[in-house]
Specification:
The structure is a single chain. The protein has 196 residues and is mainly alpha-helical. Helices cover 68% and strands 4% of the residues. The protein is built from nine helices and two strands, in the order αββαααααααα. It has a two-stranded antiparallel ribbon with strand order 1-2. Strand 1 and strand 2 form a beta hairpin.
């Protein structure tokens, strides 16, 4: 795969992220949220696997591709609705990314592999899918957990943390303990991990 092909697909992905209407302010600068999210995904991939393949790097960067176009409330606000929404998003995002790869000059098998990873197929058996899951969990803990903690009761938070922890590898756990968190969030993570 040529450097031009790699650069083109990243440009397409980041341009799509740049259209996210949700903005956040970072260091005094307004940034589309999904662009910030995808950069965090890439940064955590560098920590988790510095020698990651290009297809994994692309899948990591494209994991939330155009996610804002299918809001959570477009599905029933139930557990079943949530899982339906997540399943649809994974398939949609995988196909969008696969097409961007083909448009950039990827071989069909490489583009298919990107889609496979974004759909998180063969989790626990496929090492690259597991790395993507580790990275997604790390970005949740880094980027969303502080706000999430204020919106739910302790029992639900601990339940979610235990599920998150169970999806991760030991290397993912080690990196999670390095994330700067408030004392309250650290306390909740400790409770979840220790089983208290």
């Amino acid at each position: 795969m040529s450097q031009d092909t790699y650069a083109k697909v990243f440009h397409l992905i980041d341009s799509a992220h740049g259209e996210d209407p949700k903005k956040v302010t970072v260091n005094g600068k307004e940034t589309p949220y999904e662009l910030l999210y995808s950069n965090k995904m890439s940064n955590y991939l560098e920590k988790r696997d510095p020698s990651a393949s290009i297809v994994l790097q692309v899948a990591i960067r494209a994991q939330h591709l155009r996610r804002w176009e299918v809001p959570r409330d477009s599905y029933p606000m139930t557990k079943v609705g949530y899982h339906g929404w997540r399943t649809f998003l994974k398939k949609r995002q995988a196909e969008l990314a696969r097409q961007m790869c083909l448009d950039s000059g990827f071989q069909a098998d490489e583009a298919d592999r990107v889609g496979h990873l974004i759909r998180k197929e063969d989790l626990k058996q496929d090492q690259e899918t597991q790395i993507l899951e580790d990275v997604a969990c790390l970005v949740f803990l880094d980027d969303q957990f502080e706000q999430f903690e204020t919106q739910h009761d302790e029992a639900k938070i601990i339940s979610i943390l235990r599920k998150t922890w169970g999806k991760m590898t030991e290397r993912g756990h080690d990196l999670a303990f390095e994330i700067p968190m408030s004392d309250r969030c650290k306390e909740l993570v400790t409770k979840a991990v220790s089983g208290d």
